[in-house]
Amino acid sequence: MSKRILAIEDQEDNRRILRDLLTARGYTLIEATTGEEGLAAAERERPDLILMDIQLPGLDGYEVTRRIKGNPELRHIPIIAVTSYALSGDEQKAAAAGCDGYVTKPFSPRQLLAKIEEYLG
Amino acid sequence: MSHELRTPLNAILGYTELIADRIYGEVNEKVGEVVDRVQKSGRHLLGLINDVLDLSKIEAGQLELGINDYSVQDVVHSVISAVEPLAAGKGLRLTVDVAPGLPVVRGDERRIAQVLLNLVGNAIKFTEKGDIVVRATNSDSMLVISVADTGAGIPQADHQKIFEEFQQVDSSSTRAKGGTGLGLAIAKRIVEMHGGRIWLESEPGKGSTFFFSIPVRTERQESVS
Predict the structure, then answer these.
(1) Dihedral, A84, A86, A89, A91 alpha carbons, nearest 10
(2) Contact check, Cβ <8 Å, B18/A17
(3) Which of B14, B76, B149, B171 meets the CB 3.0–4.6 Å disulfide criterion with A17?
């Protein structure tokens, strides 16, 4: 069965890029556009990996990560934070919230795929 | 503002990379070439946007330095490993000479790395053959980092000008060599924000050496902060 990835991302184009890339590589993509939706999808779908945008309307990516990592049934799911260009301190904040990996926007699809494969390969 | 500028460009770069990686299927040679050009221009534009945003932040007094103790040796090594492939690709010899036992410095490690990356990047860009030497030494209460190259050299009259925005010695090289014409202006501001200085020694035909100094953390500074 193909691995399932949940992308929590509010930008339509970013979601489409992820969808085109990951489905072409045989992954199943589940999409959520807000933090609340993403949290609900994580609980319902139990994906193999989560791509977490940090700047989200409503609950931000740090808070969603904290809640997922605070849930004993979900905390094993690797979370890769996707945040805006190298704001000082973001990496530490993402790690403190419980993110397992970290990619900065603009992400190169190629590099993101390599990062995902570190966890799912 | 940064989010608004970068988001659409990220989409352009993302889709073109997918096309270039044949995610949407086969691409004929001609289209492939054009896509490569779109990507190249897109990355250039992204570099410009990043630099313009950095500079406008600095000018508005909004650039905050993340102040920490760090090792210059680590900064030098991380920058060198980032640019080694570029130097090797042009057949340039890249040498590092870091004096042993340099004191710990206090400042924004990432921003100082940005300065050094800019200087070494320029040295590689503007040197066609020979050597690039990166040195770090301790003199009085300053740490001095230098980047020497065997490139064309810069006439004395231009030594000040190149630290101004959008000034390259030969403006035709902006297109040929890439770059934004903002790197040195940003480097100067960052160094000055740290209480240091940036300068160069160069003559046409004799290569260039860029220097910057950053104050070493002293007891006196510590008690002030």
Answers:
(1) 80
(2) yes
(3) B14
Q: Are strands B142-149 and B131-139 parallel, antiparallel or unpaired?
A: antiparallel
CB contact under 8 A, A85 and B50: yes
Q: Which residue in A24, A106, A110 is closest to B10 by CB distance?
A: A106
Q: Which amino acid is at B133?
A: V
List the structure tokens of A79: 């979370």
Q: Residue A47: is the preceding peptide bond cis (ω within 30°)?
A: no
User: Has the ipTM of the complex gone over 0.90?
Assistant: no
| Nearest residue, CB atoms, A17 vs list B2, B3, B15 | B15
Tens digit of each residue's pLDDT, chain A (121 residues): 799 999 999 999 999 999 999 999 999 999 999 999 999 999 999 999 999 999 888 899 999 999 999 999 999 999 999 877 555 567 778 888 999 998 887 788 998 999 999 999 7
- The CA distance from A24 to the nearest CA of chain B, in Å, is 6
Candidates A85, A90, A93, A110, partner chain B, best to mutate (most B CBs within 10 A): A85
Q: Between residues 108 and 137 of chain B, which touch chain A (CB distance below 8 Å)?
A: 108, 110
Of A28-32, A40-44, B53-57, B179-183, least confident by mean pLDDT is B179-183
Nearest CB to A84: which of B3, B8, B13? Answer: B3
Using an 8 Å CB-CB cutoff, list chain B residues near A108: 13-14, 17
SS3 B43: helix
Q: Using the beta-carbon criterion (under 8 Å), do B21 and A107 form an inter-chain contact?
A: no
- Among candidates B96, B160, B157, which has minimal Cα distance to B123? B96
Give the C-alpha distances (Å, rounded to integers) separating B39 from B9, B33, B42, B113, B202: 10, 10, 5, 26, 35
What one-character DSSP code corresponds to residue B1? -
Concatenating the DSSP letter of every residue in B5-41 gives: HHHHHHHHHHHHHHHHTTTTS---HHHHHHHHHHHHH
